Amino acid sequence: MNSNGSDNCKPKPKLKFHFDVSTAFCMNFQSNECQKNENSFDSVGTCASTCLKENYKGCPFRRNPVIPFQCRSNKDCNRNVNSDQKDLLYCTREGTCCKSADLAELRSVFNVTCPPGRQKVQYTYKSSTRLLIGKSCDSKMCPVNSTCHKETYFAFCCL
């Protein structure tokens, strides 16, 4: 008997999204439709709107906020910072003051490259192109004829 209580489920692999608590990213994985899981979403939008609001209010990579108060703008975060350290902090959409270096690192980890002659596998969500990522190559999120490459925080695919 499988996890949904049915003996006759015919597995249909499908690419889905899950919230990775260690990085606070919504990542892809190949799901066996017979298995039920609360951390399994059909779109990155549903994953983010469900999990980020409930589970995450901090800085990139789950790093601690620099200043423990709600901000509305970068000015709020940098108000009491020395003039030679201006713009070292930024205000997240959730109103948390984080290090600008963490945001720069977040942006840089998504700047991956594939071997010559191959391209990153991406998808479009709300008119934005996004990198297809998974927790590891074991997530089996890469399309047929593509290769999986593991980075520090996630794996990505090249076609």
Automatic annotation (TrEMBL):
One of its GO terms (molecular function) is serine-type endopeptidase inhibitor activity. InterPro entries: BPTI/Kunitz_domain, Kunitz_BPTI, Kunitz_BPTI_sf. SUPFAM superfamilies: BPTI-like. Residues 1-51 form the BPTI/Kunitz inhibitor domain. Transmembrane segments: none annotated. Pfam families: Kunitz_BPTI (PF00014). This is BPTI/Kunitz inhibitor domain-containing protein. It comes from Caenorhabditis remanei (Caenorhabditis vulgaris). The lineage of its organism: Eukaryota, Metazoa, Ecdysozoa, Nematoda, Chromadorea.
